[in-house]
Design a protein that fits this description.
disordered N terminus; mainly alpha
Length: 212
């Protein structure tokens, strides 16, 4: 008993390892370190997601709307596939006002769209380099940034529900030539392939885990 008391006072022995003592901090220290890494990874993922929302999202939306608003038939087709019939008819009746309002709100014109295409190509090159050969953008694990890049690139990936995207976009063979070329370019990039994988795997996993 005296020997065990001396060991406890010295902070060594089995009793110390059970409560997190010793040079490695025991189990509690390991769990704490893992928790810190997970928290840091989540914060880094959120920061990257915010950066993507500011530097990628506005450009992909402007590019998509530039072509969508220029083609009245495509505008109605997208509306008809993504909203109810009554709303689609309302879109058709209010089309001039809606299209004018969207152009003004999103700054949709030729010069700004060309600038957005140039900016998007630059961001894709940066994201390709960041991703490299890793499976995820941050810390080797799935984070919000991976889903953010997938959803924000969706308008220029022309993804379908079969590929894991909830909205219906016109099939790639129906796109204007200029947009179709950009779509194929983005889909063939490293980050584009990553985004498609995230939609096909992670987004479906998240959706399946939600209670019905």
């Amino acid at each position: 008993r005296r020997q065990r008391r001396r060991v406890r006072r010295a902070g060594g022995g089995l009793g110390a390892s059970r409560v997190g003592g010793g040079p490695c901090g025991g189990r509690r220290g390991v769990f704490r370190a893992r928790g810190k890494r997970a928290g840091r990874r989540a914060r880094d993922g959120q920061r990257l997601g915010q950066w993507l929302g500011e530097r990628v999202g506005p450009h992909t939306r402007r590019i998509a709307y530039f072509h969508l608003l220029a083609d009245r038939r495509w505008f109605f087709e997208v509306a008809d596939r993504n909203v109810g019939r009554v709303q689609a008819v309302a879109y058709a009746l209010c089309s001039p006002l809606i299209r004018r309002g969207l152009r003004r709100a999103l700054g949709v014109d030729r010069s700004r769209t060309d600038a957005s295409v140039a900016s998007l190509r630059k961001r894709i090159a940066e994201l390709d380099e960041r991703l490299g050969e890793r499976p995820y953008l941050v810390g080797g694990r799935f984070t919000a940034a991976d889903l953010s890049v997938a959803c924000l690139l969706a308008p220029v990936l022309a993804v379908t529900p079969a590929e894991g995207y909830s909205a219906v976009i016109v099939a790639r063979h129906g796109l204007p030539d200029e947009l179709a070329t950009l779509v194929e370019e983005v889909r063939s990039s490293r980050i584009g392939r990553h985004a498609l994988r995230m939609l096909a795997q992670e987004r479906r996993t998240i959706a399946a885990s939600r209670p019905s």
